[in-house]
Amino acid sequence: MAGETSRPAADATTDPELACPISPVVDIVFSRWTSPILWSLHAFGRQRFVELERRIEKITPKVLTQRLRQLERDGLVVRTYHPEVPPRVEYEISELGRTLSPLFAQIAEWAAANLDHVERARRHYDEAGAPRG
């Protein structure tokens, strides 16, 4: 139609996900509480909801439920329902979730080698005062 303008196609200069191809992975794996859940399931194996809740102390039951559902939807966690009395539900990391193991190992190595540097940089920045302008 006359007078309408079409939107330009998304490219790396306008779409952050195209500019940074790992953005979707970061959104999936490193959103709040996802990493501790996956880490716990990887490190300790199959767990019931209350076991996860105990290991990840500050997470609320509502948020744990939401994150587990999202991780199940993403294929990173498997939920198994056992029709017993009382019913039992267990969660475990999926084969797809296990493929993240090398990534977590590298991040753990980086953390061990560099978090003290980050803390020193933060202290230095805070002592110097935030830049103005």
UniProtKB/TrEMBL annotation:
The keyword Transcription regulation applies. The keyword Oxidoreductase does not apply. Coiled coil: none annotated. Keywords: DNA-binding, Transcription, Transcription regulation. It comes from the Bacteria. InterPro entries: HTH_HxlR, WH-like_DNA-bd_sf, WH_DNA-bd_sf. GO terms for molecular function: DNA binding. Pfam families: HxlR (PF01638). PANTHER family: HTH-TYPE TRANSCRIPTIONAL REGULATOR YODB, TRANSCRIPTIONAL REGULATOR, MARR FAMILY. This is HxlR family transcriptional regulator.
